[in-house]
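In the current project phase, the collection of sequences with tokenised folds has grown. A representative record is quoted in full directly below:
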Amino acid sequence: MRVIVVELTGDITPDIKQLLRSDLIVTTPEKWDGISRSWQHRSYVRQVALIIIDEIHLLGEERGPVLEVLVSRANYIANQLGQPIRIIGLSTALANAPDLAAWLHVPFTMTSIAEVASISGTSYGLTGRGLFNFRPSVRPVPLEVHIQGYPGRHYCPRMATMNRPIFQGKTIDWMNFISENQVSNTYKL
């Protein structure tokens, strides 16, 4: 089986004929964002049936908003055309896999701990046709999670008392600096 792969990046821009003949387009989120904005006028965008996003755990990073727009736009296009689209997100271990799966419209169900023990390859009480969240023990490098919480009582007053001394201290230092420099500059005249 021969698969035609086309690279579409900031460095390489193939012509439309190559894109129309391709079976697979490898691109950056930013480049696909720019191209998919005009999806009504680009048949190769409307023909996409599968999107694979590598490192989807970076949603909270600099590229995150672009990834969010791409997923939302892909779902919108599929809805408008009445064609299904499959979105696959690849990631390292995730603490919020159910949230991400729900956002990607991945079918899964929560199960009891007893059921999880009998299901190979899944963990955290998650099973389904499309969600695979593997135990930390299958990672080549073990993952340690540390969570430190703070009580919610009196949050605003506590934060205000922690921020005020730093702000006041810097303000007083700055005021002293200005007044000393103005006094010394006055004597020089």
